[in-house]
Design goal:
The protein has 10 helices and 7 strands. The chain has 236 residues and is of the alpha/beta class. The radius of gyration is 17 Å and the shape is globular.
C-alpha cells in the first residue's frame, strides 16, 4: 500500500521505533522517551500511556512467506551493501512453527531448497509474537530494518559494523544529523537493552516519521501479500 501521510512537521506526530533485545523489546519515541517491555503488547501499552502513537516502526519481519524468499529481504541486502549479512531471509511460516531448529531446517529445505540459520530460528518466537499482535492491533505498524534506515539516512552504505565502537559512533552521527535525539537517561530501557538495540530503535523512529509525513519508501514499491494478509515490505 502507499503511505497515507500527507506532509507535516515532526512535532505533529508521535511515533515509535522498536527493536528486539535479549530481554524483550525496546522502544524509542520522537519525544525523546525510552520504553521497555518483556513482550510487544506491554511495550506498546507503556508507550501509549504517555500519548497516542501515529506510527510504530518495528525491526522484525511482518508478512511471512509460505514457499520462498521475500522481495523485501533481497532488496534490503542490495541497499545496505557491505552490511548485507545483517539482513537474513525471513523463514517460511511452517519452519517458524517447528519446535526445534533441526525440524525447522528440514521443513525449510524441503519447501525452499535452503536450510534455516540458527539466528533466524532463534528470532522465531518474536517474529510470531509480532505476527499475532499485528493482526489485532488498531495501531499503524510498519516493518523496518535499521541498516536500511541508516543507509537511507546517510545516502550510502555504512562503513562499520554496529557492534563496534566505530560503528556506534557512525550511527550516532547519522541520527544527530537527522535530528533524532536519544537522551542519556531513557529509564529502564537503558538498563535492559544494549547500545546497538537502542540505536536501531532510534533509526526506526526516523523511518516512522517519514512514513507519517508521507515520504517513506517501501521496498518493494508494491508490497507483497502472503496468506497472513500483512503487507510485506521494508520501509525507509
Amino acid at each position: 500500500m502507499n503511505n497515507p501521510g500527507s506532509g507535516g512537521s515532526d512535532g505533529e506526530y508521535r511515533v515509535m521505533g522498536v527493536d528486539a533485545c535479549k530481554k524483550g523489546w525496546v522502544g524509542i519515541t520522537n519525544d525523546a522517551r525510552g520504553y521497555f517491555g518483556s513482550n510487544i503488547e506491554s511495550l506498546i501499552r507503556s508507550a501509549l500511556e504517555d500519548g497516542a502513537l501515529h506510527v510504530i516502526a518495528i525491526d522484525i519481519p511482518i508478512g511471512l512467506p509460505e514457499t520462498g524468499p521475500r522481495q523485501a529481504d533481497a532488496l534490503a541486502r542490495k541497499l545496505v551493501g557491505r552490511r548485507a549479512s545483517s539482513v537474513f531471509s525471513t523463514p517460511i511460516r511452517a519452519a517458524l512453527a517447528a519446535s526445534t531448529h533441526a525440524e525447522a531446517t528440514a521443513i525449510s529445505a524441503k519447501t525452499t531448497g535452503k536450510g534455516l540459520s540458527q539466528q533466524a530460528f532463534g528470532l522465531g518466537k518474536k517474529i510470531l509474537e509480532v505476527d499475532q499482535w499485528a493482526r489485532t492491533t488498531s495501531q499503524r505498524v510498519i516493518e523496518v530494518h535499521p541498516e536500511v534506515c541508516f543507509a537511507s539516512m546517510g545516502g550510502g552504505h555504512l562503513r562499520h559494523p554496529k557492534s563496534t565502537w566505530a560503528g556506534s559512533e557512525e550511527r550516532r552521527g547519522l541520527l544527530a544529523s537527522a535530528g533524532i535525539t536519544v537522551p542519556g537517561d531513557i529509564g529502564i530501557a537503558g538498563e535492559m537493552a544494549g547500545t546497538d538495540d537502542v540505536l536501531d530503535a532510534a533509526a526506526a523512529v526516523w523511518t516512522a516519521l517519514r512514513f507519517a509525513k508521507g515520504v517513506a519508501i517501501s521496498h518493494p514499491l508494491a508490497p507483497e501479500r502472503f496468506g497472513d494478509g500483512h503487507d510485506a515490505a521494508i520501509w525507509a
